[in-house]
Amino acid sequence: MPVSHIKKAICLLSGGLDSATCLALARREGYDCYALSFDYGQRHRVELEAAARVADSLDAADHRVLRIDLRGFGQSALTDDIDVPKGRSAKEMSVDIPVTYVPARNTIFLSFALAWAEVLEAADIFIGVNALDYSGYPDCRPEFIEAFERMANLATAAGVEGRTRVKIHVPLIQLSKAQIVKLGRELGLNFSLTHSCYDPDEHGRPCGLCDSCLLRRKGFAEAGMVDPTVS
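and the corresponding structure tokens:
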């Protein structure tokens, strides 16, 4: 395929199951993928090592890690001295927005992705948000993504001049965790490279009890598969 015909896409990549599956899907759809991760002061920054492994395994055209300090604001169990909830039931997870929600995180991440997309003259941004097994995060909802996409096309020179119309791709947004696991398997994703835990130990091993670990376990179980990251 001539270089001029290759579609470029920015893919937000945390190193977790969902973002890795999203990157693998974008690659299958023929995009030249530019993976973007963030060192934002998260307590589980071991996920960045997973992001690097995933980006390399899926032949990302580039993988950049930007450093932004959201610990300066705190008010999240991921960026502040707040305990990560453990052992919660699915019902408990769905009652309120959990303390693992990082204020405006996806808005911030998508804004950086939009800036890189404009520089690369790319029209496509992929993000692995999910509105079913998503732990109640407000910035994982379809209406948020639709609003950001509208804003994105008003906010850039490329959009105003009509050179590029940005599309935010959310291919996992209506999938259950089990469906995401099955899709990852279909795409040939190496699940052992990914990391999902919010509160890993000093060796980077998953706690097995936080919301993210429990949702991941549920997904693999319902997909009839064994999670290679769990010993």
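(Above: one complete record from the training split.) The chain has one domain: 3-222.
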